Structures are given as structure tokens and as C-alpha cells.
Amino acid sequence: MASNNIAHEIERIAQMAEEASEAAKKTAQSAGQLDELASKQLEALSNYTV
Fold first, then answer.
1. What domain range is 27 assigned to?
2. Origin, by domain of life (predicted)?
3. Phi/psi zone of residue 3: left (φ > 0), alpha (ψ -120 to 50 degrees), beta?
């Protein structure tokens, strides 16, 4: 039936949205970690002069 197909597609879209949200959270976490590492590198390099 058409209503079953619609329900199935809505469920599939909801699952995809949940997966995209989780991926976005992981990306934000990775960006935060990279920012922290970059700050630590800059701090370490500031001790050196040429």
C-alpha cells in the first residue's frame, strides 16, 4: 500500500537525519581537537627563535 511505502520512506529519512547529526557531532569534536593541538603546537613553537 501507498501508506506503507510513505511510512517506510519517512522512517528511512529519519534514520538518515540521525546519522547525519551524529556525523556532524563527530566532525565538531574533531575540529575542537585539532584546534587544541594547533594551540599546543603554537605554544611549543613560540619558545624557539631563529
1. 1-50
2. Bacteria
3. alpha
Q: What is the Cα–Cα distance from 38 to 32, expressed in whole angstroms?
A: 10
Task: Domain count for the chain, please give it.
Answer: 1
pTM of the entire predicted model: 0.70
Rounded-to-integer distance, Cα 34 and Cα 13, Å: 31
2 against 16, higher pLDDT? 16
Whose CA is closest to 24, among 35, 12, 16, 14?
16
Task: Quickly tell me which residue has 603554537 as its cell.
Answer: 42
